[in-house]
Amino acid sequence: MSQVDFTRLILKGITPEGGKFRPSDWAERLCGNLCTFRNRRMYYSPLLRPAVIEGVKCVIVDAKLDAEHPAILQDVIHFAAKNNLQTEKEE
């Protein structure tokens, strides 16, 4: 059973000052932890994927990540806290 308090967590690439978080490929790098490669093409996991929402780079985290890869979830949450990224929880 999952210990998280969200169904989806969205990390937004916005700094506390309101600027864009750098480097510009941070979301793709973070999601690369679970990507797979087939036919020389990268496929992101539905549990951890980059997105652009209203012009802002984001990472969408599915709560199922806690059950399947708890260490990666903890790394993602630590990354967001360490870099003061805005987060939004969907319950």
Question: Briefly, what is this?
Answer:
This protein has 91 residues and is an alpha+beta fold. It is 25% helix and 32% strand.
What is the secondary structure topology, with strand pairs?
Layout: E1 8-12, H1 26-31, E2 36-38, E3 41-43, E4 48-53, E5 56-62, H2 65-68, H3 70-82, E6 86-90
Antiparallel strand pairs: 1-5, 1-6, 2-3, 4-5
Tell me about this structure.
The chain has 91 residues and is α+β, with helices and mostly antiparallel strands. It has a single domain, classed as Uncharacterised protein PF12112 family, DUF3579 (Alpha-Beta Plaits), CATH 3.30.70.2340. It contains 3 helices and 6 strands, in the order βαββββααβ. It has a 4-stranded antiparallel sheet. The longest helix is centred in the C-terminal third of the chain and has 13 residues, at 70-82. The chain is globular and about 40 Å long. The mean pLDDT is 93.
Q: Would you count the extended β strands for me? A: 6
> How helix-rich are the residues, as a percent range?
25-40%
Strands side by side in the biggest sheet: 4-5-1-6
The top-level CATH class is: Alpha Beta
CATH architecture: 2-Layer Sandwich
The CATH homologous superfamily corresponds to Uncharacterised protein PF12112 family, DUF3579
Report low-confidence residues grouped into runs of 5 or more: none
Structural class: alpha+beta
- Quaternary state reads single chain
Q: How many helix segments? A: 3
At the fold tier of CATH, the topology name is Alpha-Beta Plaits
Choose one word for the global shape.
globular
